[in-house]
Amino acid sequence: MRSNSQSATLLVLLFAGWSSAQQFVCPEKNGYFPDPVQCDLYYHCSRGVAEEKLCPDGLLFDDSNPSHERCDTSVNVECGERTELQEPKSTKGCPRANGFFRHYDTGACDKFINCIDGVPNELPCPPGLVYDDSASTCAWPTESLRKDCIQSKKDILEDGFSCPEGEVTLPNGRTQPHPTFPHPEDCQKFYICRNGVTPQHGSCPGGTVYNDVSFKCDDPENVPGCENWYEDEDKKAKKS
């Protein structure tokens, strides 16, 4: 009886797939085309005949090029109105067999899980970032939709400085991994934010001042407002 039941179930599934493929109208004679409602379902059209195909669980069909058969993670696929998905094939640690997911430890905001064929792999975010599962990527806490991961307490130096949120871009367009910021009163001094989150004091060599445009120590004449810094300091020293 069990064998007959399994055979009947298989026949139902095969018929459902055949029926769905029969209803799908190939937009072109050959190519790979998305199902109109299910994002991980697609069709291979050959000479105008459609064959139903399904991405591995957790992956979505990329319909950007009809000539290529490609399933990818949600980060790289725009589903649009194709909102339905197959039933998840979850395993321990993996809500679906493939994809990026929030860490099972709710306090581990800076980690996430990459599932491959149902096997979970723990990965870290870059320093200072948290995993944002709404975008399946790591982001600054203030830019993430995970409000539970916004740091309530920041490192603050004795003079009140703390590292600002967000990235700092260098003149060449690259992101500064350890951004620097000018001191509000001392042209020679500056602040360093290690990994963008931990503040430290910095100081330029004698005779130079911090340039907040180039993010480097520079000659005083190249930094507006600091041209006479050392002359003024000498005057202060003589008066004292």
TrEMBL record:
It holds the Pfam family CBM_14. GO terms for molecular function: chitin binding. One of its GO terms (cellular component) is extracellular region. Residues 1-21 form the signal peptide. SUPFAM superfamilies: Invertebrate chitin-binding proteins (SSF57625). Coiled coil: none annotated. SMART domains: ChtBD2. This is Cuticular protein. It comes from Nilaparvata lugens. Gene3D superfamilies: Chitin binding domain (2.170.140.10). It comes from the Eukaryota. PANTHER family: CHITIN BINDING PERITROPHIN-A, LD43683P-RELATED. Residues 23-81, 91-151, 160-228 form the Chitin-binding type-2 domain. The lineage of its organism: Eukaryota, Metazoa, Ecdysozoa, Arthropoda, Hexapoda. Keywords: Chitin-binding, Disulfide bond, Glycoprotein, Repeat, Signal.
